[in-house]
C-alpha cells in the first residue's frame, strides 16, 4: 500500500507557467530590474509562440543559451524543467546594463530562476491532494488586491469561497482518501481554468474571477448539489466579495480569508449542504426584507388599531432620491385624511382603511395617475391586506416588502399584491443566501395559500434535499408531478431520490420521461448516460453522453461537467469495444483533471492493450494507485499492465493489494492463480480458485482453471 502523500512536485512543465504565473512573474521582477516580464509556455497544446520570438527561440533550442537584443532591450531566458525546455521568460526595458551582461552570467541566471520556479511550485503543492495550497491562494489574493488598489477598483468582480468537505472517518488514511476524492470531484466539476486550492483538513479555497456575490451563490449552490449527488456526507461554503484595499494596509488577504471563514461558520449552522455569504452593515441595510424601524411600526400600529379590514401599501421610488421631492408629492396627494408613514426619502407606507385587495388596486390606480400628473420619478408598490389567511396585523409591513420584491419582477413602475408567488420569491431569496430553514418556512406558507403551486413544490423539494430530508423531498416532487406530470425539474430531481434509495429502474423511467419533454438539458443527458452505463446499457449511455458533450460545446453555461462526461463516455466506448474512442475520451478527462485516478487507470490499461506504449501505461496505472489506492479495480488494472510487461513480482503485489481491498474480486484471483501456475505453484493456485468458487459458485473461468489443475 503506497502512502497517500505526495512530497515531490515533479519537474516544471509548460502548464505550470500558467498555473503559477502570478508568483513566477513576481519572482522575475525580483531577479531582474525590468519594466515587463512575460512568461510563455512551450509545449504541446500551448499554441505557437509569438512570431517575433521565432528566431530567438530557434537560437535557444540550438545553443541552449539565452538570447539578448540590446537595441530593443529584450532578453529571452529559457525556463528549464530538468533538461527540458518548458518555457521562455521574456524581459523587456528597465536598466540598460542588464542587456550588456555576459551570456555566461545570463545562462546562470536562467538556471537559477528555473530552480526558483521549481521551489515555488514545490512550496505551493499540498502533499495530500496534489492541489495548490494556501500559500498559492494568498499570493493570488495579494496580487488581485494590489492590482485593484492601483486601478482604484477591480477590473472584474471576484469572490473568495471556502468549501468544507469534512471527512468523518476512523483513521487518517481514510480521512486522506476522502479528501483526495473530494478534490478530484471538485476538479472535474470546476475544470482546469478555475484554480482549486486545498488549505488542509478538507477545506478548499476557490477564487472566482468574474463573479459577484449573487453569481457566486448560484455557482456555490450548484456545487453543493453536485457534491451531494456524489454521496458526500456534508459540504458547506462560505463566500466573501473581494474588494480593493489601501496598498499601505497589511493583512488584507488574511482579512478576506477571515470573512470567508466566518461565513463558513454560519453555513455550518444552516444544514449539511448549505452556504453563507459574508454580510456587511451595508448589506443588512439594503436587504429586501430588512426590519422596519420601531418608530415606523409604532405609527402603523396606531393607524390599524381596532380596524378589521384594510390594506397596507409600501410605496418605493424606483430611482435613488436626489431630493425630498418624492415625500412632498406623497403629502400633497394623500393629505391629512389618509394614513401616510414616511420610512425614508425613498419609501413610505400608505394605510387604506376598509379596502380589500381589489378595492386597493382601484384606489392605487387613481393615486398613480395623480402622482404622474404632478411629475417626477416612477415608483413601485407592494400591497398586503387584512384579513388575509392567518397572517397577523404585525406581519403586514414585512408582507408589503415581499410584495414589493414581487413587483420588481415586472420592472419599474409596477404593483403586486402579496400572495403565494410573493412567498415563492422570498423563499428563493433566502435559499440563494443559503438560509434553507427560512426558505422552507416561506415555501410552506406559500403552499398554504396555493397548495398546487408546482414552482413552490419544486423549490421546497430541492431545499429538503440539501437538508438531507429525502422523504420530504420525495413528497414534494410527487405532489408536483400530480399537478404537472411532465414537469422536467420534478422528474429530474425525483429520479435522484429514487437512485439514492436503491431504485435505479424507477429513476431511469423518470429521466427518460424528462428526456422526452426536453432533450436539450446537458445535466439530464449526463446523469441519464451515467445510469445507462451502470445498468450495462452502454450503447444508450454512449448516445446520451455524446449528446451531452455536443450541447456543452455549443454553450458551456447550459450545465454538465465536461470531465465527468468524458470519463463515463470512455467507459461506454471501452465496454462497446471501441478502444480508440475510449482512449480519446479518457485523454479529455485527464487533460481537464490530471488527478482523475479512474480515468488514469483505465487509460493506462487501454494503452497497454492497444500496445501504445508500455512504459506510459505503467506510469499512468501507477499514478492512479498513488492517487487513490483504496480502489481494488485500480490495483487490478495495474497488475494486468505489469503482467503484460512481464513483471510478475509487481503484478503479484498489486493483485494481493487488490484482493485485500476486495476479497471477492474474482478476476484478480484468477490472474494471480495463473501466475502461480506459471511459477510452478499449483497448490496455491488451486486454493485461490476454490476461494473464488466459494464466493461465486457459477464463475465459469474459475471452474475451468480448477478443472485444468485436476
From TrEMBL:
Give every GGDEF domain span: 113-278
Q: Which UniProt keywords apply?
A: Repeat, TPR repeat
Q: Which domain of life is it from?
A: Bacteria
SMART domains with a match to the protein in the record: GGDEF (SM00267), TPR (SM00028)
Task: Establish whether keyword Repeat is in the entry.
Answer: yes
A Pfam short name: TPR_19
The record, for PANTHER family, names: LIPOPOLYSACCHARIDE ASSEMBLY PROTEIN B (PTHR45586:SF1), TPR REPEAT-CONTAINING PROTEIN PA4667 (PTHR45586)
Q: What is this protein called?
A: Tetratricopeptide repeat protein
Which organism's genome codes for this protein? Thiovibrio frasassiensis
